[in-house]
C-alpha cells in the first residue's frame, strides 16, 4: 500500500495560529487554573522542528574551542550531550509540555569568528509538536558552552562583557499528514 505524505511547514506560528481573541484559552480551565491540553484523541503524526541560537564569545575563546584547547575538555562534544539530554527532559522543565517519544536529535555547530551557533533538530512520531524540545536543546547546549568556557571569557573583574546568548528561535516546524 502506498501513501502520499504532504508536509506542512510552519516557521512562525503555533498550532493555535487561527485562534481569535474570543476563543477560550487552551491551558486554563473555567476557574482559571492551569491545565495540560488533552491530546489523547489526536492521531500520531511524524513531526520535526529545528531551533537555533548563538553564544557570542571572544575570538580567542572561539579559536580555543575550535582547537579543543579549553581546560575543561571538549566543549562541543559536551554541549552536544547536554543538548540531547535537555531535549529528552523538556517535559520535566516546561510545565505544560507533554512527554513525547523522541525519535531523533541532530545537533550542528557552526563556529564563526566571535560566536558559536547551535542548531538542534528534533523528530518525533506523536500527538504534539517538538519545537519546545528543539528550543530546550539549543538553550541548554549554549549554556553548556558558557559553562565550559567561562574561565576564558571572564574579565579581570570576573564579569563576562563579551559573552551573550542571542538569537534563539524556532526556524522550522513540520507536520506530516496523510492524504
TrEMBL record:
GO BP terms, alphabetized: Mo-molybdopterin cofactor biosynthetic process
EC number from the UniProt entry: 4.6.1.17
Domain Molybdopterin cofactor biosynthesis C (MoaC): 36-175
Pathway assigned to this chain's UniProt record: Cofactor biosynthesis; molybdopterin biosynthesis
One Pfam family matching this protein: MoaC
Record Gene3D superfamilies: Molybdopterin cofactor biosynthesis C (MoaC) domain (3.30.70.640)
Origin: domain of life: Archaea
InterPro entries the record matches: Mo_CF_biosynth-C_arc, MoaC, MoaC_sf, MoCo_biosynth_MoaA/MoaC, Mopterin_CF_biosynth-C_dom
Signal peptide limits: none
Keywords from the UniProt entry: Lyase, Molybdenum cofactor biosynthesis
Sequence segments annotated as region (Disordered): 1-47
Broad EC category: lyase
GO molecular function: cyclic pyranopterin monophosphate synthase activity
Catalytic activity: (8S)-3',8-cyclo-7,8-dihydroguanosine 5'-triphosphate = cyclic pyranopterin phosphate + diphosphate
Subunit composition and interactions: Homohexamer; trimer of dimers.
Summary of the function given for this chain in its UniProt record: Catalyzes the conversion of (8S)-3',8-cyclo-7,8-dihydroguanosine 5'-triphosphate to cyclic pyranopterin monophosphate (cPMP).
Name assigned to this protein: Probable cyclic pyranopterin monophosphate synthase
Organism: Haloquadratum walsbyi (strain DSM 16790 / HBSQ001)
